[in-house]
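hey can u check if this looks right to u? its 407 residues, i copy pasted from the old doc so theres a chance i mangled smth
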Amino acid sequence: MATRSKSITCQDTVNKVNMDFPDTPPEDDKQFKLEMWKLMKSIKLDTVAANEKIVELDNRVSIIETGAENVGTRVSDIENKIDELTTKLDSTSSELAIANQEITLLDAKLMKSEIKSMHLGNEVDDLRAHSMKYNLLFNFDKSYAAGKEIRSENSIDIVKTFLSTVMGIDTRDIYIPVAHRVGVSAPNRERPILAKFPVSSQLNTVMKNTGRLRGTGHFVSVQATQRRHERKQFVLGKYQEAKQQYGTDARLSGDKLYINGQLQAQYMDPRLPPSDADSYQINTSNDKVTDRGSTFHGYVAKVNTLQDISDALNTLRRDPDVAKCPHIMYAYRLKGNTTHVRDNFSSDNDHGVGLRLLKYMETENITNCVLFATRECLGNFEHIGIKRYQHVIDLCRKAYEQLNHTD
């Protein structure tokens, strides 16, 4: 507004000049007065032009001032909206943090539930396998007349007749408390007979003579759980593929495939990823325990992933001494960046051993490790009972302590 006041003052001055300044020069001393008149006339014209510029600039300043006021108002509105959005964002962030905490808790509960479910499934499978280990399945060839299924048959007599006439086993002392057909009955299909052999020496006698059934179309096998049956079918499928390619040079021993006497593949626990590793760092105390025909060894390996466990197990099974063992039990606990621990075990048909190893790891708070225990059954094998749990735990403890001492 100061500029506007100056413009009005200049205009008043110009008006006063215009009022006092004559339009024609005076008569006396014309030349001097003419020059002065011209000069004053020029000043008048310049003053008028300058005033017009000042008025124009004053208008522009007014427009700018008005625009600045509008911009200030808009900036204030924007700042208010930013404050509102910031408040809403803070509120949303707090809600999101709470939701993330709830999701984390739910993930932890879900993981614990999955682990418990997995443990329960393993325990149930081990219990079923333990209850089935004295049961033998007899699958007869279609041409075997004595194995034909009839309504009034005596399954125990059929099994004993088969053992005597086909397998050449003296059945006078064979004790079979129960036997029956299993599976769904169907036309033109003979269902297998399931027979219980509670005396382990008699069961072993039958299994040792199954070689006589080669090429006869008859099959005798130990009853297995659905999980173990599916795994066996998978391994047999791989064996058939190798047999077509290599012929008689392919041999299957348990879940180990040999080609020309060399270990070609190890079909691992399906709960672990496949492994092609030839070596993995595994530690052992070099101690062993021999008890009533069974020899136990303990091993330990540092691991961070399931793939590490698979590689370690594959490496261990390539050891010639371990390859002879029918049971390779293990337990592991993996702890990542969170507080949650991922764990599992396998008893490999030696009921309860894997679970005991896992319980030991939980008690000692051992993480990012896998404990292995092997059991080799010698010729004079006898049942040990729960004593074997202490054997494998002592051996694995020594291996773990030696690993820490080495580190």
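Residues 1-130 form one domain.
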